[in-house]
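The methods section describes the discrete structure representation at length, but only in general terms. An entry of this sort, consisting of the sequence and the corresponding backbone structure tokens, reads as follows.
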Amino acid sequence: MRLSTIIFYAIIPLFVVHLELALCRSFTIDYERDCFLKDGKEFRYISGGFHYFRAPRFYWKDRLLKIKASGLNAVQSYVPWNIHEPTPGHYNFDGDADLLAFIQLIKETGLLMVLRPGPYICSEWDFGGLPAWLLKNQSIVIRSSHDKTYMDAVTSWMTVLLGKIKPFLYVNGGPIISVQVENEYGIYPICDHDYMKYLQGLFEDVLGKDVILFTTNPAVTRVMECGTIPTLFNTVDFGPGDNVTAAFEVMRKYQPHGPLVNSEFYTGWLDNWGKPHQTRSSEVVAGMLDDILKRNASVNMYMFFGGTNFGFMNGANYNYHPDRYQAQPTSYDYDAPLSEAGDITDKYHAVRNVIGKYLPIPPGPIPPSGPKQAYGKVTMEQVISLQEILNDFTIFSWTKSKYPISMEQLGYYYGFVVYKTVISLQNVATLNVPGIRDRGVVYCDRKRLGIIDRNGHTELKIEDDSCKNLMILVENEGRINAGSKMIDPKGIIKNVTLNKQTLLNWEVAPFLPMTHAESRKIESFDEKDPSGVYAGSIVQPIKAPKDSYLMLKGWNKGQVYINGFNLGRYWPVEGPQITLYVPANVLRADSHNNIVVLEMDKAPCLTQSSCFVEFVTTPILNGTVPSVYH
């Protein structure tokens, strides 16, 4: 027998086996029996929300193993457009943004996946996951078929993304059983069903029609009216305090047949700076989960693991009563069954006991909570003050503009931006910055004059008639992630007036404090300006880095970097978050660990002994908040 013949007969059985596996893999809806069918058999999923972008890749497997050990059979995640296409046409799927590695890890763990790729995700994430570069055009209409610029960007991005995930669909051997189209569209005031139909067509063009495409909306009639279309499978979301029967009745009004699904069953709730920490009791969550599952419904717990808004990626809400912008903090713990550090909680055990009534719990022990280490106090020294940075004009890359331009128009999207112009004073004057987005520190020459912010504090008195060089250092505290106020460019977006006269001839520049601090260092603490860049190190070598929390009690407001990693924002004077989570992977073994703090207001450094940060083992997410914000 010839070698080619032998190879042919050897390959045929393998091809047949592969073909049979492909043919028997299916995930569909049986509308007559009101259920999902997995490989032809009745199925329902009990899923947990875990956003890969809120945890270091270092910890993905740990969190997935704990999800698996709880008895869940699926994981749900959003995909934030802004981290994957940070600038138009330039894509990032590496490191902590390696979505495909995350999906593969889900498969290897033996879990299924419900994917929510957007393009809009909300999720208390900056701009709801949309890329900030869309806001270069301040008149853009998002989430609508009526704006060609937006639709072209969406088409380009979704074509790239969906093409990458197609091999991971369940029918193709992957874990993805369903894909959401858009997100809670019924809440958005633009009721554009053509937009949803276009997205459905785009998803089907790339993914094919062998995957369930669905929508998610709150179980409210007026919301479902705009957020659903008949050709997409419709699901609802609701949480503790809602009526399960009533919620599913609303779903049935728009989805008469098929499985009942709660795509966001809230195990906790989000926090805002200046408002009390939000919790939901384990007993209530477990009881309502049981009520959902006994109806043979599928459910996703939002969140099962919340994680962290590292860097500048937190979102913000806009509350209309009272009229107020409110940013979300760095922690996204969410009072979830797994804590921000992935620790097992009482709520984990409570929901696991309920899950065990409906699905088999995997044998073996639950993976333990990770060890924590208190590395103690670290003395901080002022490297350079904000005054010193702002008065060295040569270290900025200035862009000239007759009127102030936004961060996005500058081509710079997160963090801080500085505005400079020359003024002439003869008497006391009133500076008004109605377009401040979101908070500004005002300097004139070498003097700090005060703080302005968008929540009604946009005016400041200037009494020094020698003041000439006016500078405003503006902080982007996070873009609004939901509702009608989402078009929210950052920086200064309206004209600035002095005694009602418009100020002209501005210079604008990105503010990069770490770079500026390296360019010019001072020898001692600037008593006139206790804001600025502070640095310190864990001097003792760490043999095996462990998770920790950085205590910032006594500090006011700013940003922390550890070994160059942007840990996130702190604002303990507003609360409720007092500590920042420090994952073990950002610490170095057998080497100095460098901490840099950018303090915007006032460091607790009246004496050297009071100037420190402290690594502790217990988080504080429920600190006191100003009573005016309750």
Summary: The longest strand covers residues 298-305. The CA atoms of residues 62 and 367 lie 8 Å apart. Residues 3-24 form the longest helix (22 residues). Confidence is low (pLDDT under 50) at residues 13-21.
